[in-house]
Design brief:
The protein has 4 helices and 11 strands; from the N terminus they run ββαβαβαβββββββα. The chain has about 180 residues and is α+β, with helices and mostly antiparallel strands. The longest helix is centred in the C-terminal third of the chain and has 11 residues. The radius of gyration is 16 Å and the shape is globular.
Length: about 180
């Protein structure tokens, strides 16, 4: 089953809620691909020895990985970290996450600056392209165990919006003109 995504409402209510429009306006996997967002559904129960994950890592050059658990009991300064993650930002490298357990949301913007919420559950692997504005939050269960993947050494720097002066942002925006 493919990941689920939809256009968000404009409510400032708890960001961990789904924030679906009424009626719901789904966003397809193909629409996400047009924005440079790609996804796979894998078997997270065998992530340590999964040949499909190994193939993706090899094909994409994901040479570094670690695992993070986002939960009040395991992440120091939990509430403060969530505020940082939920601030709209971009990275100079792709962001690759594989959900090993729990749930989470990535929010991205479409070409018209509308928010799209992407729901990730156990087994979902997603790549967000360098230069895309996005934000992250767990859902209401407040538990996500995720593998973070990188090409080469990890870079943990986020640049809050506005960050349009970065070449990678300009390159990302230009890539949208052709789609």
């Amino acid at each position: 089953m493919a990941i689920e995504a939809w256009f968000m409402d404009s409510s400032d209510e708890d960001p961990k809620k789904p924030h679906r429009l009424e009626p719901n306006q789904s966003v397809s996997v193909d629409q996400l691909k047009e924005l440079g967002v790609f996804s796979w559904k894998l078997n997270a129960d065998i992530y340590e020895n999964d040949p499909e994950l190994e193939k993706i890592r090899k094909d994409q050059g994901y040479s570094f990985m670690d695992i993070i658990t986002i939960h009040r009991d395991t992440l120091p300064d939990y509430d403060e970290k969530l505020k940082v993650l939920f601030s709209e930002h971009l990275h100079l490298d792709d962001e690759i996450r594989y959900i090993l357990d729990g749930h989470a949301y990535f929010d991205i913007r479409d070409k018209q600056e509308r928010w799209i919420r992407i729901f990730l559950a156990k087994g979902d692997l997603i790549t967000l392209p360098a230069g895309i504005y996005h934000r992250f939050t767990p859902d209401e269960i407040e538990y996500t165990k995720a593998m973070r993947l990188f090409v080469g050494e990890p870079v943990w720097k986020a640049y809050n919006r506005p960050a349009d002066e970065f070449e990678i942002r300009q390159k990302y925006v230009a890539s949208l003109q052709g789609s």
